[in-house]
Amino acid sequence: MKCPIFSVTRPPYQQNDYIGWITLAKLESTKQKRLNQMLDELKKGGVYMQMKWNG
């Protein structure tokens, strides 16, 4: 099932990385921080896990 958050702008490996990174956090506050970072990066574009990305 496709996740509408990612749309078609991110390759599957990035989608998997983001989801795994968020779900593996032990604290709820860490999960929220990571989710916020992911959403900010997707909105901004050109960034993947705080690295420049030309996709």
If you had to describe this structure to a student in words, what would you say it looks like?
- This protein is mainly alpha-helical and 55 residues long.
- 53% of the residues lie in helices and 7% in strands.
- The protein has two helices and two strands.
- It has helices spanning 12-23, 28-44; strands at residues 47-48, 51-52.
- The chain has a two-stranded antiparallel ribbon with strand order 1-2.
- α1 runs antiparallel to α2 (28-44).
- The longest helix has 17 residues, at 28-44.
- It is globular, with a radius of gyration of 11 Å.
- The mean pLDDT is 89.
Estimated radius of gyration: 11 Å
Instruction: Name the strands of the widest sheet in spatial order.
Output: 1-2
Q: Percent range for helical residues?
A: 40-55%
SS strand fraction: 5-15%
Count the beta strands.
2
Helical/strand content category: mainly alpha
Termini gap:
22 Å
